[in-house]
Design brief:
three-stranded antiparallel beta sheet, 3 strands, 62% helix, 10 helices, mainly alpha
């Protein structure tokens, strides 16, 4: 399941990734620290955007390039689908190099808002939290995870409208539409056609996936470090959460896939309408459809993509 962890980490806001390892007792002022994190987050957003763009197109089932027949290391005949680099070259060929940054503006705003929300809310939550003397106690882990969950949920509510805009801008590549050509047109079209609810399509599965990832990763890391790793193995302890992230990301990826598909579903774009996609009544309907088709992990891999020869994909001309 190569690419699942990378996909999960790229879906996380840059400010969330960059906050790991920051010493709370560091001397920089909060304003200076927030500015630094904001600038670093903008850089991470720019670098990773082409990866997320290609992943989104794969998620909606857009396969513009023909597969090649090959065999695995075990001798099984498969169809190798284009990986990231081939897909990116196709986008550049169609839209130029700037085409790799379709939908970047809403995602940049998502990163900026997420940074500010996390910073402000975290300060308020930490004022209410009391330090636990037992650094490895389960009570402390539950308390800290609860605080992280509050921050994560508030951040997601604040940024999800821009996530929907970014996803729809990128999905326009499939049908070559220009309906969502900028921030103003995105806001106008969504509000006019769907109302306020249109800005929050796919919010529930997205939030459920993030909360599930957070709790499973933190609790499993705590249990393993407490009962399976010796106290002297500090180096192993430092990597436990990373390893757990790999395992848990596989579990939570379908939530992210469903959230992105719901953001495009029945919005007037070819990527979210028949015959390319059914019109889903709810995110549970979307989940059921993907599960029935065996595609709950579609788009989870960037670089090594293949399907058995017996199940030929629908390839576009």
């Amino acid at each position: 399941m190569s690419g699942v962890l990378l996909s999960r980490q790229l879906k996380m806001e840059p400010s969330e990734n960059l906050s790991v390892g920051v010493d709370p007792d560091a001397t920089p002022t909060p304003v200076a620290l927030d500015t630094a994190v904001l600038l670093l987050g903008a850089g991470v957003t720019a670098v990773t955007h082409p990866l997320l763009y290609v992943k989104l197109l794969i998620q909606v089932g857009h396969e513009p390039l023909p597969p090649t027949v090959g065999t695995t290391m075990f001798g099984r005949r498969v169809l190798y689908l284009p990986g990231f680099f081939s897909y990116a070259q196709h986008i550049v060929k169609v839209d130029g190099k700037r085409g790799l940054f379709r939908g970047f503006s809403p995602r940049f705003i998502t990163s900026a808002i997420s940074t500010m929300v996390r910073s402000n809310v975290k300060q308020q939550v930490e004022l209410l939290a009391k330090r636990d003397d037992l650094q490895t106690s389960l009570k402390k882990v539950v308390k800290e995870t609860t605080h992280e969950m509050i921050i994560q949920c508030l951040s997601r509510v604040a940024t999800h409208p821009f996530h929907v805009m970014s996803v729809r801008c990128m999905a326009q590549f499939v049908g070559r539409e220009v309906k969502y050509s900028g921030m103003i047109s995105c806001i106008t079209n969504i509000f006019k056609e769907e109302g306020v609810a249109g800005f929050y399509v796919g919010l529930i599965p997205h939030m459920l996936g993030e909360v599930l990832f957070l709790w499973c990763c933190n609790l499993l890391s705590h249990l393993i470090n407490t009962y399976a790793v010796d106290d002297s193995a500090s180096a192993v302890r430092s990597y436990t959460k990373f390893v757990m992230g790999i395992a848990v990301s596989i579990l939570t990826y379908p939530f992210m896939l469903v959230a992105d598909l719901m953001a495009v579903n029945n919005c007037g774009l070819a990527a979210g309408l028949p015959p390319r996609s059914p019109i889903f009544k709810s995110w549970l309907h979307c989940w059921s459809h993907l599960s029935h088709k065996g595609q709950l992990y579609r788009g989870s891999s960037f670089f090594s993509r293949w399907v058995p020869v017996t199940s030929l994909p629908s390839i576009e001309n």
